[in-house]
Design brief:
With 302 residues, this protein is mainly α. It has helices spanning 3-10, 16-43, 55-63, 72-87, 93-105, 122-135, 145-161, 172-186, 198-210, 218-223, 235-250, 259-279, 287-301. 63% of the residues lie in helices and 0% in strands. Helix 2 (16-43) crosses helix 3, helix 5 packs across helix 7 and helix 6 (122-135) packs across helix 7. The radius of gyration is 24 Å and the shape is globular. The two termini are 46 Å apart.
Length: 302
């Protein structure tokens, strides 16, 4: 039994709505597999032209000959459709990210910064369609925090779909396996509170995969479905956080505090951080640098 057939049978356990959406996803993956195989066969013929520089270009070129291959306009329409559903209260983010990843896989999406105008790439265009449909607004501010975050997440999906180190059919096979594995894990009541939101889990997996030279698989792949468990904050973490709040207060950000009081708290915290640094073996002359380093490390955890 082929891997694709196995996935199709597994999809039978999904809800009717998710099963239909996932089946379409699998059908498109099969079309891409056929297109990719045709390109590889042509490249193996003696005297054939040198292969294109990347597998993505090969898949894209062959996929254009397929009658049902997705186009950018179709991807834009899908983003609008999913945004509309999100506005109605449905959780469509994971479907949006999967659509984006697939679009990049077949070569329809890329990271060209000015593809649709000055500073308007595919990610920005798709995010705009999604947000406008979700909110009913006619204005899209790409620099607003929420929009910037969404655009960054869409770019992550594009990067994953464009990842070429895993061989034919990857990373889509890996993505399919992850979605099916997560659906299976959801059936166990013991996992109810441990599983992360599907979109968050997918993005963590995507970022991890982009740092690898080989495909993530097996039990490690399943681990990405679960929430990340953070350890209890240390004294150092809490002090650094409090000092940052006091510093923000002095410049009019966050919770207001009397400037004189804020200065005293900052001084006391800095003194304590120096003591902690000394306890870790940092020399007195380097205590300030040690405290600054700890502040930077703590900031990376945010």
């Amino acid at each position: 039994m082929s891997r694709l057939t196995t996935l199709q049978k597994t999809a039978e356990a999904l809800s009717p709505e998710d099963r239909t959406e996932f089946q379409k996803f699998l059908d498109r993956a099969e079309q891409n597999r056929i297109a990719s195989a045709a390109v590889r066969d042509a490249a193996s013929v003696p005297g054939a032209p040198a292969p294109l520089t990347t597998r993505r270009a090969q898949v894209s070129e062959q996929a254009q000959a397929q009658s049902n291959t997705v186009t950018f306009d179709q991807l834009l329409a899908k983003a609008t459709e999913l945004g509309t559903q999100a506005g109605q209260g449905k959780d469509t983010q994971i479907k949006f990210y999967l659509t984006v990843t697939e679009g990049a896989f077949v070569g329809k999406l890329d990271l060209d910064a000015n593809k649709h105008g000055q500073d308007v790439d595919d990610a920005t265009k798709l995010a705009e369609a999604y947000v406008k449909a979700q909110t009913g607004s006619t204005i899209f501010d790409a620099k607003a925090n929420n929009q910037r975050k969404l655009i960054a997440c869409v770019r992550t999906g594009i990067k994953l779909g464009s990842w070429t180190k895993g061989g034919p059919q990857e990373p889509m096979n890996m993505v399919n396996q992850f979605i099916v594995a997560r659906q299976t894990l959801r059936k166990d009541p013991a996992n109810a509170k441990r599983l992360d939101d599907a979109a968050n889990a997918f993005l963590r997996l995507a970022r991890a995969q982009l740092k690898r030279d080989s495909i993530i698989s097996g039990d490690e792949l399943k681990l990405f479905a679960f929430k990340v468990e953070h350890g209890a904050a240390t004294e150092e973490d809490m002090l650094v956080s409090l000092r940052k709040k006091m510093q923000n207060s002095k410049v009019g950000k966050g919770t207001p505090c009397d400037p004189s009081t804020a200065d005293k708290i900052i001084t006391a915290i800095t003194h304590r951080l120096k003591e902690i640094a000394k306890g870790k073996g940092v020399q007195p002359a380097d205590a300030k640098a040690g405290a600054a380093q700890m502040t930077a490390q703590a900031a990376l955890k945010v």
